[in-house]
Amino acid sequence: MASAALYGSIRQGDPLRIPRIKVLSYRALPDARHDAFNLYGVIDAIEEKVPQLPANVRVVSLSCGPPGPIDAKLTPSRFTYAIDRLHYEHGTLFIVAAGNWGHKAEDLRRLQAPADSVNNLSVGAYTVDPTTARKRIANYSCPGPGRDGGAVKPDVLQNGGDVTVPFYALDLVHGMVQGTCGTSLAGPRVAALAAELFARSPQRLSAEACRALFIHSTIPIPECDGEHGWGILPGSVDEIISCEANRVSVLYEGKLTPRTHWKLPFLLPAKFNPNGMVELSWTIVFAPETNQASPPEYTLGGIVAQLRPHEDIYSFYVPQKKGDPPNKKQERLTLNVVKDAARKAALIKAGWKQSILPTPDAQAGRLEQVLRAEEAKWDTVVRKTVYKRAEGIQCPCLTLSFFGRGSWAKLSPVPPQARYAAVLTVHAKKYKGNLYSEVVNVYTKLMPIQLRNQIQISV
Question: For 336-400, what is the HEC assignment?
């Protein structure tokens, strides 16, 4: 694990490169009374050591767990719950290997704990076809889905090698480089990238910002059909955070409390003319408290994100009157309040009401099971991409509605909080100017993530 984090896969014959991070390694010795199956001794050690880690150690790489696939209908393992709770309380980011049972029978190959953690990143493995150089999912990499609250698992894929194209790592016991493979090698590579991102950023990024940037930057491959995460994570921090002349991303961070609503704008220059279709994409991650006793309601917070693409388009409706049946269908119209100002005035005079916010891109008020399936309402990761014509967007924004359940649904003097981060991207392939430079010039308070070259950080 340490070799994979420090050097990646070592090319035979090449000198070892200077590591970009430092590794602080802890070893939990086997305990015959507790570690035979559930690894309780290991969990005890992690719960003891993580709160005592130095302030500059913000990433923990785990390549172990109790054997066997997860069962989302059963109570999460103590290992899973422990690292979800430690992350919520201390902000430590755990990078967890997905497991190496992907080649086993269908009832055994699923993701292994604690990779079903909903507040952290789990990592599957890809390998490279030696004849075509095409990246594909390694046959041993455990697939998802995860549990309620983290259905898309593992989160990302990284190189783990295989028997034909091994991952070469240092074997300090025998003093040589050995070819091997496994998600336990892919995980430390992602952990190293996370540590490097934290260290090279002048601003103190949160673990949620790291998760959002990583997931948002993934490159999907055909095999990522919902069972192998969002895609392949790029191999360098510069690739993960880079913007282009026609593609600009904005990172938002903060804290959410239940029954609150937030507005996050997609930043565009004035009189934006994309000369074609515009791609709007977003990735939102947040870290709520979890409830181990209720598998179907493991996460105590949920988000509904709605795209409002045009600031001048509002909904108008006839308010219900006293005595109307509760199931009476409400009359609704959608108008551009600038172009259709006269009609707006006539509707208001006739007793119609205007919506408070611009009209969302998709209909609201859908059934709970639809929200779960399509919008991942109770999942800690929400990711989506839509395409719009130029005339269909004007000062687009994303609105977040944050809900609580269980103990988080109750009113309290000090409401619970969940850290969140959101990455919003505008991609206009045919834009003739420099979209990134123009946005930075218009929004002068933006803080570009300008990475330092020299770093000192520990995993």
Answer: ECCCCHHHHHHHHHCCCEECCCCCCCCCCCCCHHHHHHHHCCCCCEEEEEEEECHHHCECCEEEE
Structure tokens, 448: 């570009």
> H-type helices in 285-428, by residue range?
341-349, 368-370
Is domain 2-241 given the CATH code 3.40.50.1820 in the classification? no
Contact yes or no for 4/185 (Cβ under 8 A): yes
Range name among 248-252, 309-313, 335-339, 368-372 with the lowest pLDDT average: 368-372
Express each pLDDT in 4-26 by its tens digit: 887 778 877 777 788 888 888 88
Cβ neighbours of residue 404 closer than 8 Å, sequence gap 6 or more: 258, 259, 300, 301, 302, 416
Q: Residue 192 in contact with residue 6, Cβ under 8 Å?
A: yes
Identify the residue whose tokens are 């952290």. Answer: 120
Q: Which two tokens stand for residue 120?
A: 């952290």
Give the model confidence (pLDDT) of 263-290 as tens digits: 999 999 888 888 889 999 999 999 999 9
Band the pLDDT of 458: cuts 50, 70, 90. very low
The closest of 423, 437, 455 to 282, measured between CA atoms, is 423
pLDDT surpassing 90 at residue 61: yes
Are the beta carbons of 192 and 21 closer than 8 angstroms? yes
In the block, tokens 């076809």 appear at 129
Name which of 416, 446, 397, 376 is nearest 149 in CA terms: 376
Token representation of residue 2: 């340490």
* Strand pairing report for 353-354 and 397-404: unpaired
Helix or strand (DSSP H, E) at 191: helix 183-200
Give residues with Cβ within 8 angstroms of 401, minimum separation 6: 260, 261, 303, 304, 305, 306
Cα 452 → chain centroid: 24
Encoded amino acid at 450, one letter: Q
Nearest 5°: the CA angle 106, 108, 110 is 85
pLDDT bin (cut points 50, 70, 90) of residue 372 is low
Task: Give the start-to-end residue ranges of the domains of the chain.
Answer: 2-241, 247-442
Please give the structure tokens belonging to residue 185.
Answer: 């090698």
CA 226 to chain centre: 14
More confident residue, 18 or 313: 313
Q: What is the pLDDT of residues 105-123, one digit of tens each?
A: 888 999 999 999 999 999 9
Residues in contact with 435: Cβ distance below 8 Å, sequence separation at least 6, in sequence order: 245, 246, 247, 248, 269, 426, 428
